[in-house]
Amino acid sequence: MADGATGIGAATAFKLSQALASVVIGDINLEGAENVVGRINCSGGRAKAVKCDISDEQSVAARFLLIGDGAGGLACSRARRCRSRTHLVSSGEADL
């Protein structure tokens, strides 16, 4: 979940975790992302936080490396829309 530290992104991360998804929250605000992760994990969900600047292609690529194959097939950005992980990995920066 990109931009998941606050607002709509955090709410989406909670909803995904309630649907038994394992959630990775990427945000430039790592402290905020860790706060949301703590609340998700305390409520029985599974989540982890990574620092990610969605305006930086290398930062986004590094986030996907940290996520790994075990995170499932959906990536969401509060600023855009949900897309399959396969599409995001194979897309260029202009598509993000």
Features:
single chain, alpha+beta, two-stranded parallel ribbon, two-stranded antiparallel ribbon, 17% strand, disordered C terminus
In short:
The protein is an alpha+beta fold and 96 residues long.
How is this structure best described in words?
The protein is of the alpha+beta class and 96 residues long. The protein has a single domain (7-91), classed as 3-Layer(aba) Sandwich (Rossmann fold). Helix content is 44%, strand content 17%. The chain is built from four helices and four strands. It has helices at 7-18, 30-42, 57-67, 85-90, and strands at residues 22-27, 46-51, 74-75, 83-84. The strands form two sheets. It has a two-stranded parallel sheet with strand order 1-2. A hairpin with a 7-residue loop joins β3 and β4. It is globular and about 30 Å long. The two termini are 13 Å apart. The model is unreliable at 79-96 (pLDDT under 50).
| Mean of all residue-level pLDDT scores | 75
Shape: globular
Residue share in helix: 40-55%
Structural class estimated from helices and strands: alpha+beta
Give the name of the CATH architecture: 3-Layer(aba) Sandwich
User: What proportion of the residues form beta strands (DSSP E)?
Assistant: 15-25%
What's the assembly state of these chains? single chain
CATH fold-level topology: Rossmann fold
What is the CATH class name? Alpha Beta
The CATH homologous superfamily name equals: NAD(P)-binding Rossmann-like Domain
Number of helices: 4
The CA-CA distance between the termini, in Å, is 13 Å
For the sheet with most strands, the description reads: 2 strands, parallel
The structural domain count equals 1
Strand order of the largest sheet: 1-2
Compressed to H and E, one letter per element, the order equals: HEHEHEEH
The low-confidence runs, each spanning 5 or more residues with pLDDT under 50, are 79-96
DSSP, total strands: 4
